[in-house]
Amino acid sequence: MIELGEVQKLEVVKSSEYGVYLSSKKDKNNSILLPKKQVPEGVEIGDEIEVFVYKDSEDRLIATTKKPKIKLGELAALRVVEVTKIGAFLDWGLEKDLLLPFKEQKGEVQEGSEYLVGLYIDKSDRLCATMEVHKLLSSESPYKKDDRVRGRIYGINEDIGAFVAIDNKYQGLIPKNELYGEYAYGDEVEARVTKVKEDGKLDLSLREKAYKQMDEDVKLILEKLKLKGGILLLKDDSDPEKIKKELNISKRAFKRAVGRLLKEGQIHLDEKGIKLIER
């Protein structure tokens, strides 16, 4: 059977001026065209060719030897080449661009930008892209606690956190209390696995373990003090949101770093905040 949206080996059953016709060994009654310019040199009737099957501009099944950037069941970051009244068209490595319908978009899609999408077959039996990628992600990842992973943000919920497609395959979440900095849909992140949940989904952190992260936090506070003329209007009882806005770290991390700087004699505290000790 010829499978739409899949890479498969098909048998050459007929040759014509337009190219060669291919069929599945299980169903030789149906055949599709592989255009002449893509037919490998020396191919004969009975040979097998590995092709990808999609639909041309006239909605006919057609084969190509080109490898698409995405297949059914996969996710990929694809670039928008055009935004039209019916949706956006994406570059997926083939002559005919891939449609991302408006109903499958999340937020405003802009020409030239990349978006994480999945591939599906719509009700008209056509291949289309979707930004609703959570259904295509697996919870059976090979990762364990403290592993480093890379992924792309595919959703942000202010009450929950940022949803991440790890390796474009697995489900991950950066909880809101771990989400420091400005992030948006489509951003690539590197994170640490903090927990593997019972359902297999991964909790992530953008920060290192506390003892490693403290070095970075200490450096950050010292740099901020120098930029502010040696004075930082933050204290142990400062509001967590004020600390996050000023330093982009949690109050707990702030207190750890300040404690170390005090112990090392690099700062002192007064009623206004932190002062750098000049050496």
UniProtKB/TrEMBL annotation:
Single annotated GO MF: nucleic acid binding
Similarity section: Belongs to the CvfB family.
Annotated PANTHER family: CONSERVED VIRULENCE FACTOR B
Record's protein name: RNA-binding protein
Lineage, highest ranks first: Bacteria, Bacillati, Bacillota, Clostridia, Eubacteriales
